[in-house]
Task: structure prediction
Amino acid sequence: MNLADAYKRLGRNKEALEEVELGIKYEPEYCWLHNLKGQILIEEKKYNEALEALKLAVEKYPSNVSFLTNLGWAYYYTQQYEDAIDNFNEALDINAYYESANRGVNLCIEKLD
Result:
């Protein structure tokens, strides 16, 4: 996972995704890999694929603020604003000061108005 994360930070998403997929092959229950896969896919604007990866991450670790927020963003980018708000709010229930979730809720509300 460290190599995949390093590739992602360098903007080498293709290599990062290859490493993540390899990791998932050997550790399919490791939620952090699914979350990283979702983040990479969001950066690649593959939002529906990101949704699936992030749903798995949240399913495996439902109290992780980062996972919930990332899933919220995937819903946001697929214009599923109410689902996005639900996930952002779940994250905020755990950490009311999580900036990305707060920003996401506000952007969703603007889209729904």
Summary: Helices lie at 2-9, 13-26, 31-43, 47-60, 65-77, 81-94, 99-112. The mean pLDDT is 96. DSSP finds seven helices and no strands in the chain. The chain has one domain: 2-112.
